[in-house]
Amino acid sequence: QVQLVESGGGLVQPGGSLRLSCAASGIIFTAAAMGWFRQAPGKQRELVASITAIGNTNYADSVKGRFTISRDNAKRTVYLQMNSLNADDTAVYYCNHATGRWAWGQGTQVTVSS
Question: Which among 16, 44, 83, 110 is least buried, having the fewest CB atoms inside 10 angstroms?
């Protein structure tokens, strides 16, 4: 059974940074392409960053150059470093398989506000 536990969210001022973490269990983590998704109020969930099993990354245009996804296979954890945050980044952030095919975790709230 897949279990995904996201953490690291919070309230941050515009221009600030946060680092999200996602601990995964119940999967063969080293073989999985992982993704970070977000869902803002009234909007559909969207993929913002993904990383393949061998470390190739891809980003949504809206976060390119500001967000960095990485993974630590030994810790079965995927990270999302978020810099230069703005109000449009306010959302609940989730990790999942890059296709979003697993059960969703509880997510972690990121609020960008002054």
Answer: 44
Which residue has tokens 């810099």?
83
The rounded distance, in Å, linking the Cα atoms of 3 and 25 is 5
Taking residues 17-33, what's their average pLDDT? 92
Average of per-residue pLDDT across 68-73: 97
